[in-house]
Amino acid sequence: MTTLPDYQNEQLSFEERARDLVSRMTLEEKISQMQFEAPAIRRLGIPSYTWWCEALHGVARAGVSTMFPQAIGMAAAFDEPLVFQTAVIISTEGRAKYHEFQRKGDHGIYKGLTFWSPTINIDRDPRWGRGQETYGEDPYLTARLGVAFIRGIQGDDPKYLKAAACAKHFAGHSGPESKRHRFNAEISPKDLWETYLPAFEAAVREANVAGVMGAYNRLNGEPCCGSRTLLVNILRGELNFSGYVTSDCWAIKDFNEGHKVTANIEESSALAVKNGCDLNCGCAFASLVKGCRSGRVTEERIDRAVYRLMLVRMRLGMFDKPEHVPYASIPYEKNDCDEHRRFALEVSKKSLVLLRNRSGFLPLDRNKIRSIAVIGPNADSRAALRGNYFGTASESVTVLDGIREAVNPGTRVYYAEGCHLYKNSMSGLSEKNDRLAEAVSAAERSDVAVVCLGLDASLEGEEGDTSNEFASGDKINLELPGNQETLLEEVQKTGTPVVVLFLSGSALAVTWADEHADAVVQAWYPGAQGGRAVASLLFGDFSPAGRLPVTFYRSDKDLPDFEDYSMENRTYRFFRGVPLYPFGYGLSYTEFEYSQPSVDRASVPAGTDVQVCADVKNAGSVESDEVVQVYLRDLEASVRVPQCQLAGFRRIRLKPGETAEVVFTISARQMALIDDHGGCILEPGAFRVFVGGSQPDKRSEELTGNPVPFVDFTVTGSPLKMRR
User: Fold this and answer.
1) Residue 295 to residue 706: CA distance in whole angstroms
2) What's the structural domain count of the chain?
């Protein structure tokens, strides 16, 4: 009878098996497994595996899959269960595709189960091209949605991972893209722990995320993928992270080539491994063989890294019989199935944000619309549906497609491009504004004009992953590019009512549209079903309830320098000006009334949670979702704290006249502040908690006509030091 080696013995723990497997490898074999394209080790029965896989809003870059709205759009839904279920579907499709690829012997890039998602960096500045990948500007919202996404990806089996999520980019990455390989982000301890790290803390402590990806930039002088402060002291030490750390792609060579903190690639690789980077997306770690033999890095540290990597692969069931792995039986037919596409449509609908609706212009009555003009560079654009890091949709419904499908038979739909997305003309030999007259003619003949403007991933995204010739993926300002505003102004001059639809992954300064259009809708990059979702909103098939996960400023001149990482005068928590559209803002087709909230106790000892409750009534005539938001304000803090900060949210659905009680718990940790040294302190004093449909700022009250009700309570006792 043949005795199985321990690493193949399914009766042993994954930890025991991983240690045994590593002990059987040569140095060269170990190091080969620390590179993202890990080759097979046939003598040990280890198949080849490519770690680099993407799943930001659907399984990406691996063929056909269900395409959901871009992450920033999902954030606008303010709906944890929705993000969780989206991730469940993504991991289901990832499993279905992975096993079919395995059956065909295809182990290529993007075809595994280690998904390098979600992106939980804070979108601190709307000029950053990768803000579209995030859940917005607020640490609490980002943490809650990040945890929901990770749990949906990783599954709930007590033994096996459904797929392995990876939180990125640790830490402080949010531009500039053009300098990321040499840029040093200077961040104070207060800002680091108050803004930049909370989502990562939640990903590790609450969601047990399997992986963390380091950022390209330096943080306070240390390259993030080799930072002792970040990877040893904070991630492994304070947060007690036990998963694997991967570099961002080709980030290790930046240590010597861009950041100039090491002399050569051997030193760079040794620094990364010493400080806990286990996997190299790139080819730098090939130098570890020489580095180990020369004494720059010990084999013990190599063993530690490979153990972590093998442990993840074992937890994914890659060394066990398929019949023992519950997720291995997911059939290929689950990929891009009708059920998943229907759910993607619902996610798209929930992501849409109604920003302006003068005199209740929307929804449109399809029975009264005889002709409608659909105009603009994003009207029939598939690129504007998907954003970046996308898969292949089996069906893509543009805004033009969706409106054609939604109108009554016999309604004339005029279409005109109007202008190029960012160039002066549509072709090289054409004169400037060569499509403008056609757009005006279409508007003149229509009962309403839907003008589709904004951006796509050719104008905002990641350096090297976009054709943006201006700022390597970042935006140079917040204005509409090219001749888009000219197009809008000329269409508006026709006197035809105008609905402006913005498709973008970030905030734009759209003051003119706000002042002149009959209605304004922010659609983000709404996914493959986006056109149907938009048409359903326009014609009142549902009432919008999305909220902005970022602040829309009036101008980039209102903001600090893009390269300044201080949170002063940034985001709704610290911005001192008047925004165009605030974080948390969004309109509906009905009206909601909030009662005065109450707390379970007006005076609480330090360290005690507080329960707050309020009644919400649909006072209008349309059934609708409502995003209930809770904000906390520290009235007596000893240091700078946010003007207010999101402390809870819940998306509920109410019929006309229906009332629901909402109950939230404000934890003692949420009442604590971060001091100037990065310490977490709960100070006694007065607090105010708001419960309403927006944040409690003057601009939101002006736009909605509704002040946000509040209640005060007091924390008593002595200052209390708390875990960050």
Assistant:
1) 67
2) 3
**pTM of the entire structure?**
0.98
Q: Are residues 600 and 693 in the same domain?
A: yes
Strands 710-716 and 685-692: antiparallel
What's the CA gap between 696 and 644, in Å, rounded?
A: 8
Distances (CA, A) of 554 to 348, 579, 723: 26, 6, 38
Q: What is the pLDDT of residues 679-708, one digit of tens each?
A: 999 999 999 999 999 999 999 999 999 999
Residue 479 in this model has a pLDDT that exceeds 90? yes
pLDDT in tens, 56-102: 999 999 999 999 999 999 999 999 999 999 999 999 999 999 999 99
DSSP notation for 656-689: TT-EEEEEEEE-HHHH-EE-TTS-EEE--EEEEE
- Is the pLDDT at 468 greater than 90, yes or no? no
Structure tokens at 334: 């689950």
Q: Which one of 316, 335, 367 terminates a domain?
A: 316
Answer whether residue 292 is part of any domain.
yes
Same domain, 551 and 597: no
Last residue of a domain, one of 543, 574, 605: 574
Q: Within 13 Å and on the Cβ side, how many CA atoms surround 104?
A: 10
CATH of the domain at 269: 3.20.20.300
Mean pLDDT of the chain: 97
Which residues span the domain enclosing 285?
27-36+50-59+79-316
SS3 content of the chain, % helix, strand, coil (to 5): 35, 20, 50
Residues 6+ positions from 422 with CB-CB distance below 8 Å: 459, 481, 482
CA distances from 573 to 110, 126, 695, 700 (A): 37, 15, 10, 14
Q: What percent of the chain has pLDDT over 90?
A: 98
* Together in a domain, 550 and 604: no
Q: Are 190 and 674 in contact (CB under 8 A)?
A: yes
* CATH number, position 509: 3.40.50.1700
Residues marked active site are found at: 248, 460
pLDDT in tens, 549-582: 999 999 999 999 999 999 999 999 999 999 999 9
What amino acid is encoded at 418 in this protein? Answer: G
> For the residues 388-417, what does the mean pLDDT come to?
98
Cα–Cα dist 712/663, whole Å: 16
Let me know whether 372 and 403 are in one domain. yes
Which of 338, 340, 316, 313 minimizes the C-alpha distance to 327?
316
Kindly state whether residue 68 falls inside one of the protein's structural domains. Answer: no
Three-state SS sequence of 228-294: HHHHHHHHHHHCCCCCEEECCCCCCCHHHHCCCCCCCHHHHHHHHHHCCCCEECCCHHHHHHHHHHC
Residue 705 in domain? yes
Give 20: exposed, middle or buried? Use CB within 10 Å, 0-12, 13-18, 19+: middle
Helix, strand or coil, per DSSP, at residue 416:
strand
Q: Where are the alpha helices (DSSP H) in 11-162?
A: 14-23, 27-32, 71-76, 80-103, 139-154
Residue 530 — φ and ψ, nearest 5°? -60, -40
In the numeric block, the tokens 């900060």 are attached to 645
Query: Domain check: are 565 and 601 in the same one?
Result: no
